[in-house]
Design brief:
Order of helices and strands: EEEEEEEEEEEEHEEEE
Distance between the termini: 44 Å
Number of helices: 1
Radius of gyration: 28 Å
Helix content: under 10%
Strand content: over 45%
Largest sheet: 10 strands, antiparallel
Structural class: mainly beta
Length: 233
């Protein structure tokens, strides 16, 4: 269990102005963020197995609960032109504190297989599921390391490829609960509104069937050679 708390407070009552050079005034944001993480995991290391070489299997399971509670308030922000006339003013209506949480389940299996001297193959598979995405995420991967033992060869070849899924970030979803912003633009005189306030809000997709985790396909190739005087290239 690892609780954390972060607090930002408004320091002073000066209006917050943004100019083409630098912002000035008191901090416009007051926020208290409390997060909690409870985690449990099991790792298993199996005895070596001899079959078409040597195998060293390992596996693991982890279960996490993530929680976040936030209280925020924002003071108005004024954007000024070079001549210090008002270009835009942003106001933020108050909104209620909110909580977010997520349960994550992960499992993996991996084999360190040495079919012959100088050759190491490491296939693996990871499974992830969480309460927000609600779908199985599979991450296969494999790595190979080869050192040819021909004469006095001191060269090593390596390669790997794998699918990697990012964990669900609660902060991405938190923006949907931080209320709305109203922006009013002003004419060159800095006092005449150019129209009604424009509303900006963040939304999240409540349909979990259409949510997908960010992922990447990583691959690498490498060659290493030992030069005289133990210098590696």
């Amino acid at each position: 269990s690892a609780p954390e708390a972060t607090t930002f407070r408004v320091a002073g009552n000066l209006p917050y102005n943004v100019t083409p050079e630098l912002p000035s005034g008191s901090n416009f944001e007051a926020a208290t963020e409390r997060s909690q993480r409870e985690q449990g995991y099991i790792s298993l290391f199996f005895p070596p197995v001899r079959h078409l070489g040597s195998h060293q299997f390992r596996a693991g399971i982890d279960l996490d609960h993530l929680g976040s509670r936030e209280t925020n308030s924002f003071a108005p922000i004024s954007y000024l032109r070079e001549d210090r006339t008002l270009l835009r003013r942003s106001v933020f209506p108050s909104f209620a504190p909110f909580r977010l949480h997520n349960v994550e389940l992960g499992a993996y299996g991996e084999d360190r297989w040495t079919p012959r001297k100088g050759l190491l193959i490491e296939p693996g598979l990871r499974f992830d599921w969480d309460e927000i995405i609600r779908g199985p995420l599979w991450s296969p991967r494999i790595a190979v390391n080869y050192s040819p033992h021909i004469g006095n060869s001191k060269t090593t070849f390596s390669a790997g490829i794998g699918e990697y899924n990012e964990h669900t970030q609660l902060q991405y979803l938190a923006d949907a609960y931080t209320g709305v912003r109203y922006d009013t633009y002003y004419a060159a005189d800095g006092t005449t509104p150019l129209g009604p306030p424009l509303k900006t809000t963040f939304v999240q997709n409540e349909d979990t069937e259409n949510l997908h985790e960010a992922h990447a396909l990583n691959w690498s190739l490498g060659v290493q050679h030992m030069l005289p005087h133990n210098i590696y290239f």
